[in-house]
Structure formats: structure tokens, C-alpha cells
Design brief:
- The chain is 31% helix and 4% strand.
- It is mainly alpha-helical and 226 residues long.
- Strand 1 and strand 2 form a beta hairpin.
- 27% of the residues are buried.
- The N terminus and C terminus are likely disordered.
Length: 226
């Protein structure tokens, strides 16, 4: 009987401990890091800044956001084309070559020694790095600069505290950095200061294409699921 009481007491203590632990609210810092992890995942940051492990564009979990690997060659430049490497970490266009940066907190090759939270937010707001260099295409900072400070702080927290540092020295981008500010007119490359990305107003709408459906009797009843 005495042993049974001891066992029941131990079980009750364990249940109480588990209940208190499960009900404990996460710390504000942990919540901010997780928010940043979520935002990075839906903002397509991994598409360009993370090396891939296969042709299905699966991000390499060991090199998250570590930038263009040295083994990825820049794509060949075309006269009027924008081209990307197979892993999307290197790009070529009328502006030259650009390479996805190492966003991990490594102090030598990543952002650990260069960006404070304030510097990160300022870079996203203005498109200018702490050293004064313009962010190169295709980095869509002009879209992300409209994020509220709370979200940008969360992203900065994730990059600085939620990522494993990865040593990977990424080459500097090559070519005029203010291409996007020139309204994508090749003749104007390098002639104006970078103020902002071109807006949707600079792009004309595609012409409407008439669609004619076959008669109801000729339509297939089969379906193709994605």
C-alpha cells in the first residue's frame, strides 16, 4: 500500500509538471524568432539564398540561407535576357552578374559582423547596404520595404539568432548596381542614383486573349489533379 501511494504521488507530480510546462508561454524572443522563420519561409528567401540538394529545388537544410556556393557558376549573359543558375543563387541580366548573399550570422562571411537590427531594417527600407552599396537585382527589397517594423525585426532576429552560422564567402555582384533605379532602360544604366524599384505602373498590361470554349457535348469529363 505504501509503495502504491509513492507511485501515485510520483505520477501526479509528473502530470502537474507536464501541465505547467505545456501551459507556459514562450518568451518574446523565441516568439519573434519563430515569426521571422515563418516570414522568411513564405517570402521566398530560400529560393535564391539557400543552395539546393536536388532538381526539385529542395533547400539544403545544412546550408540554409548561406548564399551562392562557390561551385555554382554564373549563367551566361544574354543581350536582353535575365538568366539564373539552376539553383537560383546566381543571376545575370542587363545589370551584370549578381549573387545571393550569405544571410547566416557568420561574422566573417555572413551578416553577423555587419548588420545590427537597425542596419538590417534600414537596408530593406532603402535598398542600400551598410557600406553604401546598392542591393542588386533580383532582390525585391522594394516590395518588402512595406513590411511593418515588427515583421522586419522578427526576420532580423531569425537571421541573427535562429540560423546556424555557415562559412561561405560569396563574391560581390558585378555590374552597375543602380540598374533597377533607371526604370530598366539600358541606355540609362549608371546615370541616376538608385531611389526605388520600378513600380507596376512602368509595366504595360498584356493584351486580352479571346478564349473560345468547345461545345458542351465535346468537352472531356476527365480531370487532371495536380
Amino acid at each position: 500500500m505504501r509503495n502504491a501511494i509513492v507511485v501515485l504521488g510520483a505520477v501526479a507530480l509528473g502530470v502537474a509538471t507536464w501541465t505547467l510546462g505545456a501551459g507556459a508561454a514562450p518568451s518574446p524572443n523565441a516568439t519573434r524568432v519563430e515569426r521571422g522563420r515563418y516570414l522568411v519561409s513564405i517570402a521566398a528567401c530560400h529560393d535564391c539564398h539557400t543552395p539546393k540538394v536536388d532538381a526539385q529545388m529542395t533547400p539544403d537544410p545544412k546550408r540554409l540561407l548561406s548564399g551562392r556556393p562557390a561551385t555554382t557558376n554564373p549563367p551566361m549573359q544574354g543581350t536582353n535576357d535575365i538568366r539564373a543558375s539552376l539553383d537560383l543563387t546566381a543571376w545575370a541580366g542587363p545589370w551584370g552578374n549578381s549573387y545571393a548573399a550569405n544571410l547566416t550570422p557568420d561574422r566573417e562571411t555572413g551578416i553577423g559582423g555587419r548588420y545590427t537590427e537597425a542596419a538590417f531594417i534600414k537596408t530593406i527600407r532603402t535598398g542600400v547596404k551598410p557600406e553604401g552599396e546598392q542591393l542588386a537585382p533580383p532582390m525585391p527589397w522594394n516590395a518588402w520595404r512595406h513590411m511593418p517594423d515588427t515583421d522586419l525585426r522578427a526576420i532580423a532576429a531569425y537571421l541573427k539568432r535562429g540560423l546556424k552560422p555557415v562559412v561561405n564567402k560569396v563574391a560581390d555582384s558585378e555590374g552597375p548596381p543602380d540598374f533597377w533605379a533607371s526604370e530598366m532602360i539600358p541606355e540609362n544604366i549608371g546615370t541616376r542614383p538608385a531611389a526605388a524599384f520600378p513600380t507596376v505602373a512602368l509595366c504595360s498590361s498584356p493584351p486580352a486573349i479571346p478564349v473560345t470554349l468547345p461545345p458542351e457535348s465535346e468537352r472531356s469529363t476527365s480531370s487532371s489533379r495536380p
